[in-house]
Amino acid sequence: MLRIGITGGIGSGKTTVCKVFELLGIPVFYADDVAKELMIKDAILIQQIKATFGEEAYFADQTLNRKYISDQVFKQPDQLKKLNSFVHPAVFRAFDNWYTQQKAPYVLKEAALLFESGSYQQNDYNILVSCPLALRIQRVMQRDKVTKEKVMERIAAQLPEETKQSLANYQIQNNEQEFIITQVLQLHSQLLKKAF
Ligand code: ATP
């Protein structure tokens, strides 16, 4: 069963593209959602986060104080590295466990920082979803009700588009001229050929 990574800059439409693959029966592992879930459910991870950031990292009801953590890692980039060094292995373990339970010619692993984290190297192929910058900004502002500056800040924290293009095996263009569905169908048939 092939492991296919899928990524794209913020607001590029990677989740939207994944939903189309799901319609074709392809299982999708949403790494960022799993990471968020593990941070409130995985006892070892919770312990590591509290040891690094203090008890303030969690509210009394044991939900994660995201604002506090993001402020801390913004102020001290080393803390971000440390946080990733706990979270990434936990997500890898969860993926490996999930993978053994799937039955399909290939599975997708969706992650925003697939290339940045180096995890793309563990996949057979990687897909990049690309979308013009102006459209991404407009869509995220609308979806998350945030300012243009906030979106730009998040984009600046990611690898440049050209670097990601050079690392990707396949690309899907999510612009207003090309249909996602057509491109997914074409890619699906290419991946099926690779899988069998
Ligand atoms: P993030 O990195 O922030 O999680 P993402 O890459 O997963 O974003 P999506 O959430 O799939 O992106 O898309 C961003 C927004 O743009 C969503 O509100 C989605 O509904 C909308 N969108 C994506 N693609 C299209 C499209 N082809 N046509 C119309 N709206 C779209």
Strand content: 5-15%
CATH H-level name of the largest domain... which superfamily?
P-loop containing nucleotide triphosphate hydrolases
Contiguous runs where pLDDT drops below 50 for at least 5 residues = none
> What value does the Rg take, in angstroms?
18 Å
Tally of individual helices: 9
SSE-based structural type: alpha/beta
Distance between the termini: 9 Å
Quick description:
Helices cover 56% and strands 13% of the residues. The chain is α/β, with parallel strands linked by helices and 196 residues long. The termini are close together.
Structure description:
This protein is α/β, with parallel strands linked by helices and 196 residues long. The protein has two domains: 1-27 and 107-196, P-loop containing nucleotide triphosphate hydrolases (Rossmann fold), CATH 3.40.50; 33-101, no CATH class. The protein is 56% helix and 13% strand. The chain has nine helices and five strands; from the N terminus they run βαβααααββαααβα. Strands 2-3-1-4-5 form a five-stranded parallel beta sheet, with helices on both faces. Helix 4 crosses helix 5. The protein is globular, with a radius of gyration of 18 Å. The termini are close together. 24% of the residues are buried. The model has no long low-confidence stretch (mean pLDDT 93). Residues 8, 10-16, 112, 139-140, 143, 174, 180 line the site of adenosine-5'-triphosphate (ATP). Keywords: ATP-binding, Coenzyme A biosynthesis, Cytoplasm, Kinase, Nucleotide-binding, Transferase. It is found in: Cytoplasm. It catalyses: 3'-dephospho-CoA + ATP = ADP + CoA + H(+). One of its GO terms (biological process) is coenzyme A biosynthetic process. Pathway: Cofactor biosynthesis; coenzyme A biosynthesis; CoA from (R)-pantothenate: step 5/5.
